[in-house]
Structure formats: structure tokens, C-alpha cells
UniProtKB/TrEMBL annotation:
Protein name: Transaldolase
PROSITE patterns: TRANSALDOLASE_1, TRANSALDOLASE_2
Family: Belongs to the transaldolase family. Type 1 subfamily.
Keyword Transferase listed: yes
Record keywords, A-Z: Pentose shunt, Schiff base, Transferase
Domain of life from the UniProt record: Eukaryota
Enzyme Commission number(s) from the entry: 2.2.1.2
């Protein structure tokens, strides 16, 4: 029986949401996402000490100021983890700019360019990197500029429909609406438990997805921050879903049958009737063309038969095909009132001969 994870992969691009790249390969994700929290958690594992040490040594060799060295080491550490993850996945890695720049457009742009430079320094093309930026007004303006430079942006910390529309209008590559954190807020403030199909986080992502498809935005919708597998299953068919290793394992171990919930076809009735109408009109158009072809061929046949009847092929006089062109033209004029236009040897004498014969 096919696992739930494999069923999801039929409709949705699966993204691993982790900094623990040693655990990624078994799930076969296309892309991966990281953030400072995930990287911090990963650094607690001694097996990643070499990446930390490498980042520190890099920073010490580049700047003298201790403060600047710490900042550079933090950036380099993100890139080090990203580089290792890219060895495992075929797609892209998302790395996040410093959260303190969330309301600083110029600062965000500068940091994004710097991260891309660090990746390119070690041979990673920017096409394999997405820069994660908070979906503030300032962040969206920064992303708009970066996208024009060919730097792909993943708009994170997205909780509302308004944020989603603003991001799409800015032409960003991808948005990450946080289904789990939306649910957290409602549970805390509304004091209510929700069924999976009533989950406010799921409803929010679904609304954004359907609107994007209706309007025709190219921005990818990637559901994020899930609290359980039920949320994920309710969003089966979303463009991308970024999922933690814990939930990926649960999806991989489950073999129940699931259904696609989201589809670019947001109105089945309209799609079905449109297709039906096109096929019907196309068939009637072909039928009309066939009728016209038959009528045209019939008229041509009638004309040919009329000419054949009037020409006596048993006539013992000079056969029509042996007559001079001028004589034949005169004869045709007499029978069908056709204009004589061919003269002997192409000369004007033919016209005069025709005039004499027709008086």
C-alpha cells in the first residue's frame, strides 16, 4: 500500500523543514527550508561542530572587529548548512535574513545580496537559493527589488490574505503561509478545538491558494508550520508543503488512502461546461465545413457534366482538341458566351479574327 507521503507527492512538491540535514535524505524532498531556530537546534548536535568551526574561522579571516566577525560567522553558518543540504536535495534551499531587518528594506536587500555572494563564493548558483524574508511591508518592497535582480524570495511569517496578495503583486517566487501558528492563535484566543476541515490555518492557506489560481498569480503557495498530519492532508494538492522530519516520518509510516483537496481547477462546473462547449462547437464547425465541401464539389461536378454534354466527342469534324486555340475560343463564345481572349500565337490578330467571326 502506498504511503501517505508518496500519495502527497503525486500532487504536491514536498519540502523538508529542518537544519538537520542528516535526516533529510530518507524522505526524498525536492527542496528544503531552514530558519535561525532550526539551525540553532541543529548546532546542539556535536556532529555539526565542524560547520560551526568553519564559519568562525572564515569570519576571523575576513574582519577584525569582533562584532562584525560574529555577524559574518552567523551568515556563513547558514550558508554552510545550506551547502550541505544542497548536496542531498535536487532543488533549492531557503535561508533567512536576520529577523531584526524585518522593517528595514535596504538592510534586507543588502543582507540578501551578501548571502547570495557567500553561496556563489563556494560554487552554488543563485538559482538554487531562496532568501526568506518576513512578510512586512518593508520586506515585501525588498523582495520586489531582489526578484528583479534574479534573487528568488520566500516570503515567510505570512498570516493573512492581505499579506499574500501584496506578495503576489510584488512578483515574489514563493510565500509560506503559517497554518500551524494561525491555529495556535485561535486555540489560545478563541478557546476552541477544531476539526481538520475547520482548522483556521487550513482555511487560510486554502483561501490564498484558490485566489491565486483564480487570478492567475505565478507565486508558489507553500503551506508551512504544521502542527499535525491532518493539517497536511487537508492541504493535499497545494503547490508546496514544507514539513518537519517528525511529521514526514508519520506520513511515511501511514498507508491510509487520502484524496486531493486543492486543485488549480477551483470551479469544476465551469471547467466541465467550458470543455463540453468547446468540443460541441468544434464538432459542429467540422460538420459545417464538410457540408460546404460537399456542396462545392457537387456544383463543380454539375458544371463539368454540362460542358461534357455540349461537346460532341463523336463529332467527325475536326476534334476540338486539334482545333486552333482561336477557333476553339470562337466556338466557346458562341455556345457559352465566354469572352475570347486567346489569339493565334498570342498576337492581336486573334482578336480581329474573333470579331469577324462573331458578326
Amino acid at each position: 500500500m502506498t504511503s501517505v507521503l508518496d500519495q502527497l507527492k503525486q500532487w504536491t512538491t514536498i519540502v523538508a523543514d529542518t537544519g538537520d540535514f542528516k535526516s533529510i535524505d530518507q524522505y526524498g524532498p525536492q527542496d528544503a527550508t531552514t530558519n535561525p531556530t532550526l539551525i540553532l537546534n541543529a548546532t546542539n548536535n556535536p556532529r555539526y561542530d565542524y560547520l560551526i568551526n568553519s564559519a568562525i574561522e572564515y569570519a576571523k579571516g575576513k574582519v577584525s572587529s569582533n562584532e562584525k566577525a560574529i555577524e559574518l560567522a552567523a551568515d556563513k553558518l547558514l550558508v554552510n548548512f545550506g551547502f550541505e543540504i544542497l548536496k542531498i536535495i535536487p532543488g533549492r534551499i531557503s535561508v533567512e535574513v536576520d529577523a531584526k531587518l524585518s522593517f528595514d528594506t535596504e538592510g534586507t536587500i543588502t543582507k540578501a545580496r551578501h548571502l547570495i555572494d557567500l553561496f556563489e563564493e563556494i560554487g552554488v548558483d543563485k538559482s538554487r537559493v531562496m532568501i526568506k524574508i518576513a512578510s512586512t511591508w518593508e520586506g515585501i518592497q525588498a523582495a520586489k527589488i531582489l526578484e528583479k535582480e534574479g534573487i528568488q524570495c520566500n516570503m515567510t511569517l505570512l498570516f493573512s490574505f492581505i499579506q499574500a496578495v501584496a506578495c503576489a503583486e510584488a512578483g515574489v517566487t514563493l510565500i509560506s503561509p503559517y497554518a500551524g501558528r494561525i491555529l495556535d492563535w485561535h486555540i489560545k484566543n478563541i478557546k476552541k478545538t477544531y476539526k481538520s476541515n475547520e482548522d483556521p490555518g487550513v482555511i487560510s492557506v486554502t483561501k490564498i491558494y484558490n485566489y491565486y489560481k483564480k487570478v492567475g498569480y505565478k507565486t508558489i503557495v507553500m503551506g508551512a508550520s504544521f502542527r499535525n498530519t491532518e493539517q497536511i492532508e487537508e492541504l493535499a494538492g497545494c503547490d508546496f508543503l514544507t514539513i518537519s522530519p517528525k511529521l514526514l516520518t508519520q506520513l511515511q509510516c501511514s498507508h491510509k488512502k487520502i484524496e486531493r483537496k486543492l486543485s488549480p481547477n477551483t470551479d469544476p462546473m465551469a471547467t466541465e461546461k467550458l470543455t463540453e462547449g468547446i468540443r460541441s462547437f468544434a464538432q459542429d464547425g467540422r460538420t459545417l465545413m464538410l457540408m460546404l465541401k460537399q456542396r462545392l464539389n457537387k456544383e463543380e461536378t454539375m458544371i463539368t457534366e454540362k460542358i461534357s454534354e455540349d461537346i460532341d466527342l463523336d463529332d467527325k469534324t475536326t476534334p476540338w482538341w486539334q482545333k486552333s486555340l482561336t477557333d476553339f475560343g470562337v466556338e466557346m463564345y458562341g455556345k457559352y458566351k465566354l469572352p475570347a481572349f486567346i489569339g493565334e500565337s498570342g498576337s492581336s490578330r486573334g482578336y480581329k479574327k474573333f470579331e469577324d467571326s462573331s458578326r
